């Protein structure tokens, strides 16, 4: 890996003049003022390896995220297939543990944060009227740290003779210290790279939103998605460096005999405190931008502006502050001081309030609105429903007596997966909503709705079954189950229902991928700069004005668009409810 990085540095320094690839007309901030620049981007692979255009980098983040999502989904389908019956019949328990570890880390670190960075990179500069990110080259570096990080995290699966890491995604000590496989060390190094990447991106977003806004965009009319990205970036700035420090200490314990997390040293609970001080803000790091996506998309198809905009902003900031005061609710069963437990329970219950405010505002926005059940709107409604279920089940876990009974059961898995699937619905809503903008083409609406219904049915089947498994006493992270841990017949039936739901989710993902790729290549062209007919409700935002400018430029330059094709879009609009 080191040789590959050195070779890339030499190639960039000696063979390619990366500074010549800064488009003077597109890049703002410091980069736009450099003496290096020309109007044309390079073509082919060179463009994607050297680009500093925020839109290109957003696409790179998106493609990377789809690849990591595919691996995370494949690993969990193998696990769910294994759980169809009680004994280990398909894979060994060690393989199950390795897939469990890879699934959690991949979807939280390699998919969750990068897919949101894809939207933020592409659309935040457009929404705030900036030419580009404040630091375009740092933006590029932040992305290119991710592929090596993913390879390091997955190294145990494709390097012969090395057993994959089996620490679970939380990497609890002393297990993560005692496992001898070098794959654990490679995974920790890969996680460190992803943390550095996220921190660099957060600094860039903060600088961009503070300094690169157009004159007419002030704090009072800053869009809600940019507010959530700004709050997310603040959370990253204060939490990811702590995770990086904890990872370094764990590496030192594993390789140099230090005692940060050993029983005779700092103690295993020190790791849990450090990890969850990062880990619970991480939940809001990956849920706040999806809330912003829903807050910006849902009103468009309700025919009215977002209800209580200021309260949505204030609740976003409140979540950002309170998220650092709830981490120990993950540790209620560790024997911590009961007085501390009570304080963390109170803050955990309190943080449900700003989330409830957002939910109220979304539902009120739809109330008496002119709803159009397009694919983006369906996924917005799906987000609200899944988020409510995930939030209500989480409130029970905030109660110490309930948590002591349900902790480390499948109830916890069902709860946080409802939240994670809600995040995924917001991502799908964003992809479908902006698909005409970044491709200039339409997706297949029928396939999009098949995708929605299969995804929603599969999600509810899988995670309701897990909720019931938790109530029945099924422990999480178990590769097998038998009469010693509970009613096998009940466990088997519920596991089979959960596996059926997981297959439906997988099928919906295949439909989504086919729809996006096929439509991008062969879909019918968009015939209006206002494809969703937002202007008539006064809901046309800055990114669509940019899209209009791009279309006008294409017509002027003799591109594929022509004034004759700029016709009425009634045939392209979806049904109105």
From TrEMBL:
The chain crosses the membrane at residues 57-78, 99-121, 141-163, 184-210, 230-252, 283-299, 311-330, 342-361, 373-398, 418-438, 450-474, 494-517. Pfam families: COX1. Keywords: Electron transport, Heme, Iron, Membrane, Metal-binding, Respiratory chain, Transmembrane, Transmembrane helix, Transport. Belongs to the heme-copper respiratory oxidase family. Its main location: membrane. Residues 48-532 form the Cytochrome oxidase subunit I profile domain. Residues 553-577 are annotated as: Disordered. The keyword Lipoprotein does not apply. Residues 560-577 have a biased composition (Acidic residues). The keyword Nucleotide-binding does not apply. This is Cbb3-type cytochrome c oxidase subunit I. It comes from the Archaea.
